[in-house]
Every structure is written in C-alpha cells, then in structure tokens.
Amino acid sequence: MSTDTRTDTPTIVLVGHGMVGQRFLEALAERGLTATHRVVVLCEEPRPAYDRVALTSYFSGRTPEDLSMTDMRFIEDHGIELYTGDPAESIDRAAKQVTARSGRVFGYDTLVLATGSYPFVPPVPNKDAEGCFVYRTIEDLLAIEEYAKTRARTGAVVGGGLLGLEAAGALKGLGMDTHIVEFAPRLMPVQVDEGGGAALLRTIEGMGLSVHTGTGTQEIVTGAEGAVTGMKLSDGSELAVDMVVFSAGVRPRDQLARDCGLAVGERGGISVDERCRTVGDPHVFAIGECALAADGRVYGLVAPGYEQAETAAAAIAADEGEQLTFTGADLSTKLKLLGVDVASFGDAHGTAEDCLDVVYSDSRAGLYKKLVIGRDGTLLGGILVGDAETYGTLRALTGSVPPIAPESLVLPAGADSGAQLGPSALPDEAIICSCHNVSKGAIRGAVGEHRCTTVPEVKKCTKAGTGCGSCVKVLGQLVDAELEASGIEVDKGLCGCFAQTREELYEIVLALRITSYQDLLDRHGREDARGGDGCETCKPAVGSIIASLAPAIGASGYVLDGEQAALQDTNDHFLANLQKNGSYSVVPRIPGGEIAPEKLIVIGEIARDFGLYTKITGGQRIDMFGARVEQLPLIWARLVDAGFESGHAYGKALRTVKSCVGSTWCRYGVQDSVRMAIDLELRYRGLRSPHKLKSAVSGCARECAEAQSKDFGVIATSNGWNLYVGGNGGATPRHADLLAQDLSDAELVRLIDRFLMFYIRTADRLERTSTWLERIPGGLDHVRDVVVHDSLGICDELEQMMRAHVAHYRDEWAETIDDPEKLARFVSFVNAPDTPDPVVAFVPERDQIKPDLPLLSIGIRPSDTAADVLEGSAQR
Amino acid sequence: MTLALETTDLKVQLRLADGWFTACDLSALVPGRGVAALLPDGRQVALFRDRTGRLYAVGNRDPFTGAAVLSRGLTGTHQGRPFVASPLLKQRFDLISGQCLDDEAVRVAAYEVRASPHQSAPVRTT
Ligand code: SRM
Ligand SMILES: Cc1cc2nc3c(=O)[nH]c(=O)nc-3n(C[C@H](O)[C@H](O)[C@H](O)COP(=O)(O)OP(=O)(O)OC[C@H]3O[C@@H](n4cnc5c(N)ncnc54)[C@H](O)[C@@H]3O)c2cc1C
Ligand code: SF4
Ligand code: FES
C-alpha cells in the first residue's frame, strides 16, 4: 500500500471518469486550474471516458476506440494523473483522503464525485442467472455480443423506455428475435404520451419486434445448467428466451457518499446546492447522474451533467465574475431508435395550467406530432415521433410565441401549410445546442466576429453540434443564413457558369439524360453563361459526371469521344500526367502492386528505349517520366501489347488499391489481401468520381497496407473483412471510420459498390471522401444508414449503376491506339507532326534524366508580345 | 523541314510580319480545344476555336512556367471574353488580347487569325 506524498500543491480528486467527469476536467483546464492544482482521477472502468450516449453505435461498427472521448494528449499535457480500473473505495472526510481499490490513498483539498448511475434490476427471481445482462458500459456490450453470438437466438429486454429500445435495437441488430416487456401501458412512457406511444408501437412492431406493454416481469426461468431459458410475465404468459437485458431505469451511484455520511435524497442522489457543492461539506462536490440537484431532481441526461461540470469548475476556481449556478435543466431529447426519430422537448406532457395541444397524427405513416401551447400562444413543449426534422427549431423556440401559427409547424413538409420556419425566426437567446448550451447569438458571433464560414469551423469555435449531434441541421441553416445576412455570398454554385452544386448537376444529368455539356450549359447554366464556352472549373466536373453516368444516360464512356474530349483537363486529354516542362509521365496499372518479373522487364525496357526517368510511386507502382506527347502512343502500344492498362494516374478516378502480402506469405496474415486488392482494383478501375479514389487491403490488423488512410480501406479479420471509409493522407490526413465489420467477400464488394456510388452522387467537385464525410449532414451515421440500412431505398439503384460501370469498362489506352483520328492529336505541332517540342529537353541526374530547367526559366515574363522569348532556345 | 501542302478546303491562317501564314486545316481544331503550331522563326503559337467557330491565336508558351503548353489548356468565357487557362498552374489568358487575367503585368503574344480558302506559300522552318 502506498500513501500519497502530499505536496504543497492543492489537490483535486475526481472520482468517476465518465462523460461528465471528462467534461469537468476540460472545464478545469479551460480555467487554468490544472496548472495550479494537482489533479487525480480515479476511474473504475478499464478505459478512460467514452461516449456513453453513442454506446449503441458499437453495434453498427464503431469500435471502443472510436467511442473514446479522452484525448490522452490532453491528459498528459495537463499533468492529470489518471488511474483506470481503480475505483475509489472509501472516503475519509475528516482526514480529507480517498482510498482506492489498489490501496493507493490520495489526500484532497477538493473532492468531486462523478460516479454516474447503475442500471436498476428489478428484484425478480433468478435475475443474476447466466444470460442476464444490463446495458450501461462497453464491457456490458462486449458480454452481450459474445453471448448472443455463441449462445442465444431469442432475447428479451425488460423496459420499454429510451434505453430499453436502444438495447432492443442492438439485440435485433445481432440477429435475434427480440421481445420488449414494458410495465407501463406504452413505450417510452416518460417522453411520449399515449398518441406518440401508439405511433411508436406500430412502427416498432412493423420492424418485427414483439412488444408486450402493460405487463411486468415476474420471474426469470432457468434451465438445468442455470442459464436463462425463458421469463414469466405478470399477465400469466411465458416467453421462451435465451437471454435477458434489464433496462428498467437507472439509480444514482451514491453509496460512496452515503458511507462517508454525506446527505443523499430519499430516492437516492447526492444532495448538492446550486453550485454543485454537497450539502454539509464545502470541500466535496457531486456532478452528473449521481447528483441530486438543488431543484430536487436527478438528471439522467448528459447535457445537464455538462452544465453541472462547468458549474463545479467555476465554483472551485472561485471566479467571482463567473458565478455559475445549476438550478435545473431542459429534459429535451432527440433519438433515433431503431431508425425511428423520437423527440420530446419542454413541457411535453402539457402539465402547465390551461395549456392547449396541437396534434397531427398519421398512424399509417407512423407519424405523431404534438405541440403544447400556452393560453397566450407561447410554445411550451412538444413530442415528435416518426419525423423530428423540426426538433432543433422548435426546441429553440420553446418559451416564446412562434412567429407563425402552431398548426403549420406540425403539418408535414410538403403539406399545403405554406409556412416555413427557418432559424432566422429565433431570438438570439434561443439555445441551439443544448448539449453545450450554445445560443443562437453565440453562433452568430462565431460567423460575424470570428469569421467562421463553414459548419465545421463553427463547431470548433463554439463546440455546438459536437455532443449528441441533434442540432447540426439547424446549425447548418443558421450558419448559411448568417453568412448571407452579413453579405458573404453563400453562392453554392459550382462556378460562374452554374448556380447548381455538383450534386444538383449530377441529378439533372441523370434525370434528363443529358449527354452534352453545351446542352447542360445552355439549358441549366446561369443566364449570362448560356451560349458561352463555360470555364475550366465546370468543364472537367461535368465531363466527370457524364463519364460516371455514361451507361445510365447512354453517353460514350470513352473520355476522348466527341465533345467530351474538349471537357477534359490536359491530363485526361492526353491520358497522362503533365510535368513542369510540358512532358508527360506514364503510369500503367499494376493491380494490388503485384507484378510478375516479365512485366517488370517490359517496363524497364520501355523506359530504357525511350530514355524515361523511372520511379517507384507511393501507390505501389512505377511511374515513367519525361515522355513527349508524340511518344505517348508509341509507349502505350508496347505497354498494351505486354498486357498493361491505363493506371488512371491522370484522372479523378480510382488510383491504386495497395496491398500487403497477406496470408499467402506473411505469418500473421488471416486473409488473402493481395487477391482482394486485385479484385477491387479491377472492379473499380476507370470509375470517374468527384476526386481521386484510393484504397488498400491489409491482411491483418497490423495494417501494413495503411488501409485506414484510404478513401475505402479493407482490413482482414479472422471472420472476413472490416471496411473503413473516408481516410485521407495528403495535406489534411484523416483516419478512416469503420463502416462495417466481418464482411464476407460478397458483402464487402456490395457495400463498397454502394458507398462509392453514393459518394459519386452526392460529393462536391474535388471533394475527397474524407471531406465529404465531414461535410454531409449526419456524417458517417447518415452514410451508414443509406448504404448499410438502405434508409433512402436507393441501394438497388446504386448497385445497378456499379454493375453497369463494371460491364462497360474498356481500357482507354487500348481504345486510343486503335483510333487513328484520336492518335493524330498526340503531336507537339499540328503543322509539324514529326518535330518534337524543343522546350522539352533533359539533362542527366543520378544516372537518369531530369527536365532542363534553365531552358524553362528563360525570360519568365516577356515584357512585350513581339519578342517571344522562345526564339533563342527553339533555334538550338 | 518542309511542310506538306494542305489539301482541305478551309485553312487556319495567322498574320505574321510578312503576311498570312497557314497553320493547319480548320478541321484539325476541335471546338473548345487547342493545338500548337510551329512558326517559321521557331516560335510556337496556340490556336483555338470556340463553339461558334471563332478562331484565336496566342503565344503557346506559358510565361509562368516557361513550358510551351497553353494550347493544352481548357478554354472558357469570362464576362463575355474568351480565355484559356494554363494547364500547369491555371492562370487565365484572354484569347483576344493575350492579357493574363490573374496578373496585370503578364501578357502573351496575340495574333490575328482567319479561316481562309487560300493557300499561302509553303514556308520553311529550321
Ligand atoms: C507519383 C506520386 C509521387 C511519387 O513519386 O510517389 C504522386 C504524384 C502526384 N500527386 Fe500524389 N502522388 C503519389 C502518391 C500520393 C500519395 C500516397 C498514396 O497514394 O499512397 C498521397 C497521399 C494519400 C492520399 O491521397 O490520401 C498523395 C497525395 C496527393 C495530393 C493530396 C490529396 C489530398 O487529398 O490532400 C495531391 C493533390 C490533389 O490531388 O489535389 C496529389 C497530386 C499529385 C500530382 C497528380 C500533382 C500534379 O497534378 O502534378 C502528382 C503527379 C503525378 C504524376 O505526374 O505522375 N497527390 N499522392 C505518387 C503516385 C501514386 C500512384 O501510383 O498513383
Ligand atoms: C445506452 C445509453 C444511451 C444513452 N443515450 C442518451 C442520450 O441520447 N442523451 C442523453 O442525454 N443521455 C443519454 N444517456 C445517458 C448518459 O449516458 C448519461 O447521462 C451520462 O453518461 C452521465 O454521465 P456521468 O459522468 O454522470 O456518468 P457515467 O457516464 O455513467 O460515468 C460515471 C463513471 O464513474 C465510474 N464510477 C462509479 N463509481 C466509481 C468509483 N467509486 N470510483 C471510480 N469510478 C467510479 C463509473 O464506472 C463510470 O465510468 C444514455 C445512456 C446509455 C447507457
Ligand atoms: S498487414 Fe498483417 S498480413 Fe499484411 S503484411 Fe502486415 S503483418 Fe502481414
Ligand atoms: S444539442 Fe447535442 S450536440 Fe448540439
């Protein structure tokens, strides 16, 4: 046992490193307290704070690491001592000491309890049998998953509240027949009323879950080995189930406080005052779900906990200018449960005197919307089931008289309501992000004073939208409105020729089957651009859209055909990459980076015969530099002959699928990563997209192919493949996000098909998958909904388009060298086809060549038009 | 070398100090795309044709990089004026005046150009 050596530095001990605990540490750091204090954190769980609110997303592919909320650099930078897996066991308030399970003893000047809640398990017989679980921590989820995979086919969730429905969704996602047992007469009794419950019930039953409301759990039935085999309900019926998850509410974890004599509420919760100080001991604070706030309530949501964390930190800082108090909080919630939007806000149940309801309900569509309005027209609260689009706006309007009639706020969009309520109608004090307590005024300030021009910038500046994410939509509208108001034109148009975004042009081209750029410009371009020649921005962008959609709209998929040729950037036009002196580089495709010796020799011979500079690229293939335009067809004739195809190093298209050597050779490999890389490269070769696409396949978690830095990366697991998306190297590196796990070959390919086509359809010009994923509303979750769960019902279409691409693929270079008319373009001079461009000259370097740079630098800026500086050199 | 006599109907010609010079057949110019031609004195010119059939000719050398590549740039219309964007670093040049639209101090040569049924005398290059 070690006893803490007390230093002179005042010490803050935090017990519990959950969501609120972490927020408290950030609040300390922001106030400079980590510099003046020693900060010790006792964390019971084996891992530091993670996003419990998003716990269920584990089942849709987020790893425990993804869920983490703790940046270890933050912990280190602020000198915080964090002890994971070491809970506090007792508190000696007289000695001001905390003892941890490991035996460590810490003296404190200030103690902060943030111990959260524990799941309440009703005292039914056999509640602890094998196969019974709760749903609160990552460890709980891992245990549930393990059991469900190996031992269970049918499961029941006890509790039909918010968390119960999440748990039920998780069981369903694990492939189990799922029951929900709820004692109250409806689902989510706390948040929704009877009408909302009915809409919810229909939708959830429609998804194949069995719901039993108005009945309690009487007993868990076990088999011979003591494991769960069923449960008896209070209505006399019995369900045959292999596992049970209790989700019947939570209770504050106040035992530690009780044991040291701190005051707790009648129904639990550590009593605190408005500054989150415990009643009776000014050195001890309690925050988050374990606290009984000054208003007599225990809050089971994260936003009030965050507010308490700030309040406590301000009190400890004793900053007189910042007298924060916590006197109660908003219980608004918005959830996506099993794919159903459910939201409630303000006085959802209409408890205020004399209030009125406005209700819209469409049971067939599973829609229910209710607003609670005061006598004077003030919006008091409401419930939205099935469609919570307007949640952000309505929540922010709560407490004021809406500028338009309440009926029009609940009618479905598109119904003839006429009124549209944008965020511009909100007052400055309206709270847009309740997780971080950010008002509309603060967001306007971020745009106005801090010059943020995009949602990600505003998020960074204000923290708005970085909690539960439910406010991001309104945030986006507000930022746009604000930019517009401050005169910063938010012209989302592609360029000076088109007022549409790339995505809109894509839809136009697809819907109207437009195969000509001029047609598109003349019919859909900006008024003053019609009839003109367009510009260098929209030409390649439209050329790429037409190429992507070629099979669907009946255009030629060959980028040098007809008008298409005039749309291509010079690289695509010459099917090679332009270099600084006007020469080109040549990159043949080497799928997966695998190449036989004969082919290597061919590349060597060609490079030698044409005097090209060769280099191994970062993409596992070989680049040959210094080809003059008239040499390209000659080089390619030999490459095509040897079985090579275009590598599209020049196109906004699939580049390479890198591989590691994988299970064939590597002692660690668990799948044949080379074969998969080759399959993927051959499938997606030639696919034109908004920006280049890169991929990689690694044979095991050691990740030698760096798949997580790719637009789509694949990592082998012992059960199949994990698919990561949205990775990027380059200037702004981004680690890819896990989209789905343990896929079979066919599932993997199908998911990538959908993902790529969805990206191609909705991304902006020159927007890599990484920025696209960050930009689109809903981010990764939305993309997952669309491509994994088919929430938009477009997956068939996306797959169909990819099949068409694969079926229509032809090698551009093979086609070009077969076409004398196209070949005629590959000359330096139209009037002297055999004369090479004299500016393209080389000098030796390290046994190879490099551009003759002095030749280029002659007279960089000709002073007048008469004396073309080329003269001198051209005559050489 | 000697340039071969052209046989098609319309020729693209540009005016040099000593008269009209035939660069190529009109049919060699794809609307919206350029070609480069070599002048008798070794200079290079970039020739363009827009969608209405108008012809343009400017110096081929990109003054920002020194490479002779302007003929390989994308063309467009900016406030009613035709331009070409260098394929290297994307600066735009007015096709009528040769003026760089991104840098007032920079300009490339601009030539008078026509489509003509007449053949001019073959010219020798170096
Ligand atoms: C040849 C090569 C460098 C080398 O010698 O290794 C290369 C060369 C070029 N890269 Fe790259 N990149 C090459 C690998 C990479 C990699 C590494 C990789 O792919 O594993 C990256 C970072 C990974 C990534 O993209 O996420 C990379 C990030 C970039 C970027 C930044 C992209 C970004 O999203 O930030 C650009 C600029 C752009 O595309 O806008 C770029 C652009 C370019 C261009 C096309 C610039 C240009 O327009 O001239 C270079 C011309 C290539 C040519 O002439 O052939 N290159 N480039 C590599 C060719 C790989 C291949 O076989 O196709
Ligand atoms: C599945 C799920 C979904 C949810 N969804 C939402 C939602 O959509 N919106 C919302 O607002 N809220 C939601 N919540 C509730 C939200 O997660 C909690 O309100 C929030 O986590 C409370 O934070 P906390 O720090 O007070 O408690 P916790 O996050 O529970 O953290 C407390 C930590 O203290 C540790 N601890 C306890 N005793 C000790 C000890 N003696 N020594 C050391 N450590 C100790 C615990 O192990 C725990 O790690 C959800 C919760 C769950 C489980
Ligand atoms: S990723 Fe795994 S299988 Fe592939 S080379 Fe590295 S260690 Fe071997
Ligand atoms: S309301 Fe939760 S992130 Fe804004």
TrEMBL record, chain A:
Binding site for siroheme: C704
Listed SUPFAM superfamilies: FAD/NAD(P)-binding domain, Nitrite and sulphite reductase 4Fe-4S domain-like, Nitrite/Sulfite reductase N-terminal domain-like
Keyword Oxidoreductase: yes
Reaction(s) catalysed (UniProt annotation): hydrogen sulfide + 6 oxidized [2Fe-2S]-[ferredoxin] + 3 H2O = sulfite + 6 reduced [2Fe-2S]-[ferredoxin] + 7 H(+)
Enzyme Commission number, as recorded: 1.8.7.1
Domain Nitrite/sulphite reductase 4Fe-4S positions: 651-787
Family as reported in the entry's similarity comment: Belongs to the nitrite and sulfite reductase 4Fe-4S domain family.
InterPro entries with a match to the protein in the record: BFD-like_2Fe2S-bd_dom, BFD-like_2Fe2S-bd_dom_sf, FAD/NAD-bd_sf, FAD/NAD-binding_dom, FAD/NAD-linked_Rdtase_dimer_sf, NasD-like, NiRdtase/SiRdtase_haem-b_fer, Nit/Sulf_reduc_fer-like_dom_sf
Known function: Catalyzes the reduction of sulfite to sulfide, a step in the biosynthesis of sulfur-containing amino acids and cofactors.
UniProt GO molecular function: 2 iron, 2 sulfur cluster binding; 4 iron, 4 sulfur cluster binding; flavin adenine dinucleotide binding; heme binding; metal ion binding; NADP binding; nitrite reductase activity; sulfite reductase (ferredoxin) activity
Protein name: assimilatory sulfite reductase (ferredoxin)
Any GO BP: nitrate assimilation
Span of domain FAD/NAD(P)-binding: 11-313
Requisite cofactors: [2Fe-2S] cluster; FAD; siroheme; [4Fe-4S] cluster
Source species of the chain: Streptomyces filipinensis
Superkingdom: Bacteria
NADH-rubredoxin oxidoreductase C-terminal domain ranges (all copies): 332-395
NCBIfam families: nitri_red_nirB (TIGR02374), PRK14989.1 (NF011565)
Positions that bind [4Fe-4S] cluster: C660, C666, C700, C704
Record note on quaternary structure: Homodimer which associates with NirD.
Domain Nitrite/Sulfite reductase ferredoxin-like: 579-640
Entry note: cofactor: Binds 1 siroheme per subunit. Binds 1 [4Fe-4S] cluster per subunit.
Key words, A-Z: 2Fe-2S, 4Fe-4S, FAD, Flavoprotein, Heme, Iron, Iron-sulfur, Metal-binding, Nitrate assimilation, Oxidoreductase, Thioether bond
Pfam family name, one: Fer2_BFD
From TrEMBL, chain B:
Domain of life the protein comes from: Bacteria
GO BP, sorted A to Z: nitrate assimilation
Keyword terms of this UniProt record: 2Fe-2S, Iron, Iron-sulfur, Metal-binding, Nitrate assimilation, Oxidoreductase
Pfam families named in the record: Rieske_2
CDD domains xref list: Rieske_NirD
Span of domain Rieske: 21-114
GO molecular function: 2 iron, 2 sulfur cluster binding; metal ion binding; monooxygenase activity; nitrite reductase [NAD(P)H] activity; oxidoreductase activity, acting on paired donors, with incorporation or reduction of molecular oxygen
Name of the protein in question: Nitrite reductase small subunit
UniProt organism field: Streptomyces filipinensis
